[in-house]
Design a protein that fits this description.
By secondary structure, the chain is of the alpha/beta class. It has 2 domains: 103 residues, Urease, subunit C, domain 1 (Roll); 289 residues, Alpha-Beta Barrel (TIM Barrel). The protein contains 15 helices and 15 strands. Strands 6-7-8-9-10-11-12-13 form an 8-stranded parallel beta sheet. Strands 1, 2, 3, 4, 5, 14 and 15 form a 7-stranded mixed beta sheet that branches. The radius of gyration is 21 Å and the shape is globular. It starts with 5 loop residues before the first strand and ends in a 7-residue tail after the last helix. The relative contact order is 0.15. It binds N-(iminomethyl)-L-glutamic acid and fe (iii) ion. The site of N-(iminomethyl)-L-glutamic acid has 13 residues, from helix 3.
């Protein structure tokens, strides 16, 4: 029996360790893996004695934690390019939604699709993320809006994880829009979610968290408070689409319920940022939606920094506001559009994205004990990961489960 299953040598390493300054750079480094976890990492000259079942030189390449996309809606049917054209001619996202388009248009297509059709449409999206170094993906429901179709979406999301090899974490977003059959009766729909859907999802362990869309065209604070209370009772973590189109007090609401994250945040106020800081909620910034909607109001990055709110970056892959299956693109856009540094973008798609999923102790940095999901890159510095657009630089994505034959423990 060897001490290590795999030993990587001759590596440049960016650990992204929380207590290390900057990228946590190690030159001439080595990293040892045992049982799907990092057993040792540091300068090769300091490598303790031990034997490895396999030793591989990575020839000076950079290792980073595998990337984590902590906010996606990548299970859906159909597309909404017609709405994109309408918006280019001046229609707003809210106007299109109020006319029965927007999210409800994807709901119609998704309800009509079989599980296999949804799976076949979504798999290439997951594969596109994997091809750029992503090993953990959050996937939301929210285009079913009734019990059967929300369950169908969550089951498809789970199947995507089983067949693609990456970790999928699922989120119930039944409170995404008011379904047409509940027109004018949003409270009744929230009751259906709380009384029927949530208990079933919790007992079947089909979702890792619960999300909602807090906006005038979606749900208000009292409705979301009811949903979050019930989620907390059932032991499900919560997160929120907050202050995307207007300041609806979403950041405060999410913080009040101990949310893992509040996402979007373009219109979040100073008091919203302070509430997030107190609650330890992660700010998940979504530049794909900002760009696609032609938004001009930027999220309050300076206030997030000065209040030490952790910042994550995600693709928000969805057919309405962020038709983008690329986390690397989101990183570049977050630097250019929001002024995040390349280091913030990489931390935001590794360490802080893990935190946004409640996985801070499990993955997202290259530190002893962390899950050995590792990206190996053909780059000369990790800042390049937030600089290139559409350029393949992944040499290899090493998955803990590949090393352990699927036996890596999951939180
Ligand atoms: O993250 N804002 C609400 N939800 C999605 C958009 C969903 C859609 O338009 O289909 C978002 O932007
Ligand atoms: Fe979203």
């Amino acid at each position: 029996m060897s001490d290590w299953d795999l030993l990587l040598t001759n590596a440049s390493i960016a650990t992204l360790g929380a207590d290390t300054p900057g990228y946590g750079e190690i030159s001439d480094g080595a990293l040892a893996i045992a049982g799907g976890r990092i057993a040792w990492v540091g300068p090769q000259a300091d490598l303790p004695s031990g034997d490895a079942a396999m030793t591989r030189s990575v020839s000076g390449r950079w290792l980073t934690p595998a990337l984590i996309d902590c906010h996606t809606h990548l299970v859906f049917a159909g597309e909404r390019s017609g709405e994109f054209e309408q918006r280019l001619s001046g229609a707003s996202y809210e106007e299109i939604a109020k006319a029965g388009g927007g999210i409800l248009s994807t709901v119609r297509a998704t309800r009509d699709a079989s599980p296999d059709e949804l799976f076949d449409a979504a798999l290439p999206r997951v594969q596109a993320l994997i091809a750029e170094g992503v090993a953990t993906v959050e996937i939301k429901s929210g285009y079913g809006l009734d019990v059967d179709n929300e369950l169908k979406m969550l089951e498809v999301a789970r199947r995507l994880g089983d067949s693609s090899g990456v970790s999928v974490f699922t989120t119930l977003l039944a409170a995404h829009a008011i379904p047409p059959e509940f027109g004018g009766r949003a409270d009744d729909y929230v009751d259906l979610i709380c009384d029927k859907l949530l208990p079933e999802v919790a007992s079947r362990r089909l979702a890792d968290a619960v999300d909602a869309y807090c906006e005038s065209i979606a749900f208000g604070a009292p409705q979301i408070a009811k949903l979050f209370r019930k989620s907390n009772e059932l032991g499900l973590a919560v997160k929120l689409h907050a202050d995307q189109l207007s300041d609806g007090g979403g950041a405060e609401l999410a913080s009040h319920f101990g949310a893992l994250s509040a996402d979007h945040l373009e219109y979040t106020s100073a008091s919203g940022v302070e509430a997030m800081a107190k609650a330890g909620a992660v700010a998940v910034l979504l530049p794909g939606a900002f760009l696609t909607l032609g938004e001009t109001q930027r999220p309050p990055v300076a206030a997030l920094r000065s209040n030490a709110v952790p910042i994550a970056v995600a693709s928000d892959c969805n057919p309405g506001t962020s038709p983008m299956c690329s986390l690397r693109t989101a990183m570049m856009l977050a630097s250019r559009l929001f002024g995040l540094t390349p280091l913030e973008c990489l931390a935001g798609t590794t360490r802080e994205a893990a935190r946004a999923l409640g996985l801070a102790d499990d993955r997202g940095t290259l530190e002893i004990g962390k899950r050995a999901d590792i990206a190996i890159w053909n780059i000369s510095h990790p800042r390049e990961l937030s600089y290139w657009l559409g350029t393949p630089q992944l040499a290899e994505l090493l998955l803990a489960d590949t090393i352990t034959g699927g036996q890596t423990t999951r939180p």
